[in-house]
Amino acid sequence: MSVSSSAVRPIRWAIVGSGGIARRTVGDLRLCPEARLVAICSRSRERADAFAAEHGLPLAFDDYTALCASPEVDAVYIGTPHATHFALARQALVAGKHVLCEKPLTMTADEARTLGRLAAEHGVLVMEAMWMKFSPAMQRAVELVREGVIGQPRFLQAGLGYPVPANGPARFWDPALGGGALYDMGVYLLTLAQMFLGEPEEVRVTGQMRPDGVDLAEAITLRYAGGAMAQLATSIIGWMPPRGWLGGDGGAIDFQEPLFSPGGLKVSTGRPPAPPQVQQLDFPREGAGYAPMFRAAHQAIRAGQTEHPQHPVAATAAVLDLMQRVQALMAVERDAGASAGLGAGSAPGAEASPPGARP
């Protein structure tokens, strides 16, 4: 399917994976007039048929190769566990399907760059589903910073986390699926830092990592050329309110909850000794919050782009590079702690938690 051939009709989507993400995706795709949701793909024929019947989809697949070969599908939304993303996206791109894939796009930066090259070769779009970037609140925050409303950005602080039950989704606890806090929630925080501060010169991290590589919690400090800093924290063993703020030398932006799809911004401007001027900007969420991202993907497809200019593969790969650095630093800290008799992480007793169990 060529990009030009899709210009005269709705873009026909298939969802890959039938879990909670898929259910949220259905409603938001249907908010977009240019989209037509036509198919679901699940490893289970029973689940695929049930999902299709529940949501009125004409096609149900339990064979991903058959989905990729279908002439009735133009684009796929991949909502499966992290570690499966690369292989599924690669197969779809080679088959000529546009790909919008849940974050993280892949497990490594090199894998992301490979997908970017394949998309260019086959003339189709590949894009990480970083819906935070396309939320109206974040779009406005970027504009405010570009307009100099808060002056030169100097400091970003953000957190996101909650205690995941031991019997919670396997994507959090299974190392084979890319389990841990960083790849599920930390990706939002590092993307946020990239959006407003760019690429860091120095990375420091402390936290807790199990022997099998599943990270339970981390606090990350980033330093940038010119002196700007970011402090980020994420966890799957404790609560961290999903909020953040960006401070500049002329004001600050408070990203109100939830950070990944803010309902509002509180913008404070001015310099002491004068009191700050405060403006509240509200952004009601549309559907589950994915619709602006889907519209952006449609615009890129219609324009014949193989990457979205606001979230190109290079940006995704840079964040993945950073995530790999954070993981490596966490592993060094864990191993040093183990040598000192502190167990699997920086907290005593961490090694007592069996794989898959909440510490």
From TrEMBL:
Keywords of the record: Oxidoreductase
Keyword Oxidoreductase: yes
Sequence ranges of Low complexity compositional bias: 347-359
InterPro entries the record matches: Gfo/Idh/MocA-like_OxRdtase_N, Gfo/Idh/MocA_domain, GFO_IDH_MocA-like_dom, NAD(P)-bd_dom_sf
Domain named GFO/IDH/MocA-like oxidoreductase: residues: 138-253
Gfo/Idh/MocA-like oxidoreductase N-terminal domain ranges (all copies): 11-128
Pfam families the record matches: GFO_IDH_MocA, GFO_IDH_MocA_C3
Region (Disordered): 339-359
GO function term, MF aspect, one: nucleotide binding
Protein family (similarity comment): Belongs to the Gfo/Idh/MocA family.
Protein name per the record: Gfo/Idh/MocA family oxidoreductase
Naturally occurring in which organism (per UniProt): Ideonella livida
